[in-house]
Design goal:
heterodimer, A: mainly alpha, 1 helix, rod-shaped, B: 540 residues, mainly alpha
Amino acid sequence: MQAYGLTLGAHLLLWAFPLALTVLVVVESLLDNTWREPRK
Amino acid sequence: MTPLEPNVLATVAAVMVAYLGILLFIGWRAARRTHGGEDFHLAGRSLGAWAAGISSTASSESGWVTLGAVGMTFTYGISGLWYAPGCLLGYLVNLYVVAPRLRKISETQGSVTLTDVLTRRWGDPRNVLRVTATTIILVCMMGYVAAQLTAAGKAFSSSLGLEGRGGYVLGVVIGAAVIILVTSLGGFRAVAWTDLFQGLLVAAALIALPLYAISRLGGFGALIQGLGAIDPHLLSAGGDRVGPALWGFVIGQLGIGLGYPGMPHVITRYMATRNDREVQRMQLIAMMWGVVVFYGAGLVGLAGRVILPGLADGEQALMALALELVHPVLAGLLLAAVISAILSTVSSQLLVAASAVSYDVVEETLGGARDDRRSLILGRWTVAVVGLIGIGVALMEVRLVFWFVLFAWSGLGAAFAPLILLALSRRGVNRHGALAAMLTGVGVTVAWKLGRDAAESPEIFARVWWITLIAAVAILLVGHLTHAFENADRIGVVAAATITVLAWLLVQRWGLDSLYELVPAFFSAGFAAIVVSAVTGERD
């Protein structure tokens, strides 16, 4: 039976993009909290 | 879908009744905390991060995410997922560029609606901007409300086992009655709280169902093998498209995100957020909701294609999978999630349409109901009247109104998104440029779509330049007779008409068929704002 796989573009679209975006947003939020902490 | 068995139907209907009861309870609690006009239209600027974040995203997605987005990947495979980066990039701009600035500017101005932000930003001595913006919002929102009520009516009638025309009418009336009651009693706060509840339900459904469906298939590898066996193109990011068709499709899908900053029912959530700290927390919450929901919907479509290859309509994949795979109680919850996605948008759009009438027209333009209590009563009655009109349009299935809906997202996005971004980030635009941008945004949206789909559009619209000419003359005439227009406004109207006709010629001659109309309309509107402001010379 033939084995199928995702193309490179499909890998990027299906999981690399959302993963990168999630990391970016979470890191931004953490940095923001760290930066804000001394002002509390 | 096949008709449900009686015991399944009874369970699903019981879950639906409980869900509607929760919405009414939330509306009643919100009503007890709503005491005046600013409370009703903007929840007294008191929203926390969760309510603001989830309600802004849930209200923007409508039934599209549980029906249309699922259908995209069901039909096109992985290449149907291009809407996800498009929408998420729109979320990024909205949450990180628009939200913090808009909250501050609206608090400083004391503005309550999107129209209010624009008119106070550039000044509007003769109400030209307010009347133009309100007209665009009302036309688009009323069409949207009616179309969503139709979708909700169909979903209710099928999940409650109501059959035929009578079942559809009852479905529309049940859904609309609950939403009108909740919105008119609790106003913005009720809409935001019910959106939060419904948005979380949608997210839970779009996490649980694809995970369960993929595990039933035997894992992610089995999903990929199943899709490849149906058609290897389903596993590629471009599908079977090549060359200009592929690039037009990708740019068009990414361009969906351009519309978000112009959606009044979305960005008013940012104006209502309590403080900057809540805005920052909201950014993370809303982005995560977006990732989960868009990719969850995509995976439901992919799994549905393998599990239910015979399903005729891919947009029904979520409901069909729910009924096929899980216990009736869970299926009821999943169907409630589908309806939640629709109703959370209806309530938000209903409130925006009512605010446009009661606040922008009656209170600000005509100078009525200046005290807070009268403003609240006026707002409540306007929601009820606008909602009843929406029910009437949905039940009579007025075709012209549904035709308008085809332009609603891109029309609103092109008319307001460039303006909001310019209002928040750039000097050098004035009120005449703002008028030109709104008219250009709507004009190019309509012209591009009609030029592209000439064969499918009503024959009267086959010559867009005629329609544009008549519309421009009518606008100039109304502006002249009401003494509202200055010369600079007339320049704006002529510029908008010229750009509209050029766009129509461009799409007809060059055949840029696959490019989504919002992309050219957005940039044309921004261009019109800057050029008309420069020509008319008055800077803010």
